[in-house]
Design goal:
By secondary structure, the protein is α+β, with helices and mostly antiparallel strands. It is built from 6 helices and 14 strands.
Length: 272
């Protein structure tokens, strides 16, 4: 026996036939949707004495751009191309959601960032970069990746003993040593004991240099090395736990015996 054919007939309803309450609800919903579609983006609420880090692209090159907000809307900071990991100094100001930054090379203007902060679907800083003679212009699009407090724009990693350059130089050495397989150097610069994951996901506690060297290739496997290689050592996030590379794949801090006159750095966490 074949299935009977199902027929459904819809009655056409005019707006006049709708109940007043339903017509009112529909009108309210349409008004709300129009408000959502046309409401202007609000300015990002930035705090003074904070670093704000944006990641994205200038033209087709990946960059990290960081600025520090001082009083009266003044900005200081820097940016770097991730492939070079070398900072270029910036100075400028913010007014509402408009930001203008001057790039300095050997103390002289070399280019200008002019853009806006957007907060519609993400906290973004977007606009155009123009070189000092105005002949070359490239679009930049960046998204807020992190923020951290500091009492001075001259000292980003304020809880670490030593300069910002020294901390970033050490992290650069960590990164290079892992990629190149320098087991001895890495083993000499770890705070033991340290928890890690082996290749099959098993958690282990490495208690000394000998165990680290024996398990080096399982700890620093190909995929993990790829993440480390892609991470930039400029303008890293930091807090009371130390300074982290990328999204927390490596953490460093001062050695336990560090003092203001005699200090060093050590790897405190390996999140592989």
């Amino acid at each position: 026996m074949s299935n009977p054919e199902l027929r459904i007939t819809f009655k056409k309803t005019t707006p006049k036939e709708l109940k007043p309450e339903f017509r009112k609800m529909t009108k309210t919903l349409l008004s709300f949707l129009l408000f959502v579609l046309y409401v202007p983006s609000q300015a990002l609420d930035l705090n003074t004495k904070w670093w704000y880090d944006f990641e994205g692209k200038l033209g087709n090159k990946e960059i990290i751009l960081s600025f520090y907000l001082m009083d009266n809307g003044q900005l200081a900071g820097n940016y770097c191309y991730k492939m070079f990991e070398s900072k270029i100094q910036l100075t400028g100001r913010i007014s509402g959601n408009n930001i203008e930054l001057t790039e300095l090379l050997n103390g002289k203007p070399n280019g200008y960032f002019k853009g806006k902060i957007f907060t519609d679907n993400a906290d973004r800083f977007e606009g155009n970069w123009t070189n000092s003679n105005g002949k070359n212009t490239y679009a930049f699009k960046t998204t807020l990746s992190s923020a951290c407090a500091s009492d001075s724009h001259n000292k980003r990693y304020e809880l670490l003993i030593g300069s910002d350059d020294e901390a970033e130089k050490f992290m650069k050495q960590v990164k290079t040593s892992i990629i190149n397989g320098n087991k001895e150097w890495i083993a000499n610069h770890i705070s033991y004991p340290i928890k890690i994951k082996l290749v099959k996901g098993k958690t282990a506690t490495i208690k000394n240099k000998k165990q680290l060297i024996e398990n080096f290739d399982q700890i620093f496997h190909h995929q993990y090395k790829g993440l480390i290689s892609a991470s930039c050592v400029c303008n890293m996030f930091n807090n009371y736990q130390g300074v982290m590379l990328g999204h927390g794949i490596i953490w460093i801090n001062n050695t336990p015996e560090s003092t203001s006159s005699r200090y060093g750095y050590v790897i405190t966490a390996i999140n592989n």
